[in-house]
Amino acid sequence: MRVVLEARSDYAFVGELVETATAWLRDQGLDEDPGADIVAQVLSAPSFAMSADLNGTTTVWHAVVLRRVEDGVPPYELLVRVRATVKKRHFPEGASTAVPAAITAKDLHLDLIDLADDAEVGVLMDHYISMVRELGPMRSARTLPYNILVLGNPHELGCADTPADWQQQLTFLADAFDANITFERGPSVAGVPKNLMCLVRFDPFAGELPRKKKADGSDDQDEIEHTAIEARFTTFKEAFQRICAALNAFEPPQTSDEFTPRDLKPGEKIYHRKIGNAVGYDRFNAGSTESCQHTTEYVRYYNSDKAVKGFKRRYTNFEPSWMHHCKQGGCGMYAVFCPS
Ligand SMILES: [Zn+2]
């Protein structure tokens, strides 16, 4: 919000938001909770903020989840969202002084949520999707580490209230979880993508569920773990919540972090993708001698203590100066170049 407003802008809207918040809290019987505090949090320390220029004005969304702990009241969580439109600084016709940027419309939404409840993670993601739908995807296409496969078309299978843009909504959701998404109507399925984060099957999906080789290497095949959704007895909203819960429960396979630390050999070049965060260090995949598709464009990578610690766990002779990173924005591939 600060980016689009100026020092000379009129900040009276903050007071109005505080009034709205205070009235809402009073209606909920939560009037111990200071509305000013909540408004300050969502405006100056949002956990989510995005803006876009639409029709000559700037639309800004801020959101934050606040956990409230008060004496005598069970702890509760508040989802606070502000949507505002801002008319940019401009010169009225014939005027020599600019009119500062101003808020032309604003809305404050407060919702009580319970993030310990799986279904409410879906509620949160639903709010997120509504923001992304209005303002557009947050980032351009890039290489995402995980995959989601959706079998069956909920609309055709009788899932109530399936919106026309259901695939788009699930694509935005997948993006929020760093995953690509593939839709298959069946009956045949091209295959199961690598790094599968979640397989969703809307029944009665006509096709066979893909299978995977048993770990013991025998010809028997195991059914792949999946989220089965009875389309005819489920609303799309419930299906969306189930998918959110499945994505939220996903944990990257731990095996990829099981490695024996070793020395890098002179001249060795290994490329790694980051697959997660541990306390104090970054976790990287097993690594490969194959770079990303951007090949040679690697630059020294500084200022990441956690990445250095992640590589030190893996390579016993690791020096921070060996750490490189793909130059291409959004690629995210790391490289370790041991001097020869
Ligand atoms: Zn790259």
Structure explained in plain terms:
With 340 residues, this protein is of the alpha+beta class. The chain folds into 3 domains: 12-113, no CATH class; 146-249; 256-337, no CATH class. Helices cover 23% and strands 31% of the residues. The protein is built from 6 helices and 15 strands. It has helices at residues 12-27, 35-44, 118-135, 166-176, 236-249, 305-314; strands at 48-54, 57-70, 73-87, 102-113, 146-151, 179-184, 196-203, 211-213, 221-223, 227-230, 269-278, 281-284, 298-300, 323-326, 333-337. It has a 5-stranded antiparallel sheet. A hairpin with a 7-residue loop joins strand 8 and strand 9 (221-223). Helix 1 (12-27) crosses helix 2 and helix 3 packs across helix 5. The longest helix is centred in the middle third of the chain and has 18 residues, at 118-135. The chain is globular. The chain starts with 11 loop residues before the first helix and ends with a strand. The relative contact order is 0.09.
Layout of secondary structure:
Blueprint: H1 12-27, H2 35-44, E1 48-54, E2 57-70, E3 73-87, E4 102-113, H3 118-135, E5 146-151, H4 166-176, E6 179-184, E7 196-203, E8 211-213, E9 221-223, E10 227-230, H5 236-249, E11 269-278, E12 281-284, E13 298-300, H6 305-314, E14 323-326, E15 333-337
Parallel strand pairs: 5-6, 5-7, 7-10
Antiparallel strand pairs: 1-2, 2-3, 3-4, 8-9, 11-12, 11-15, 13-14, 14-15
Bound molecules: zinc ion (ZN).
Zinc ion binds next to loops.
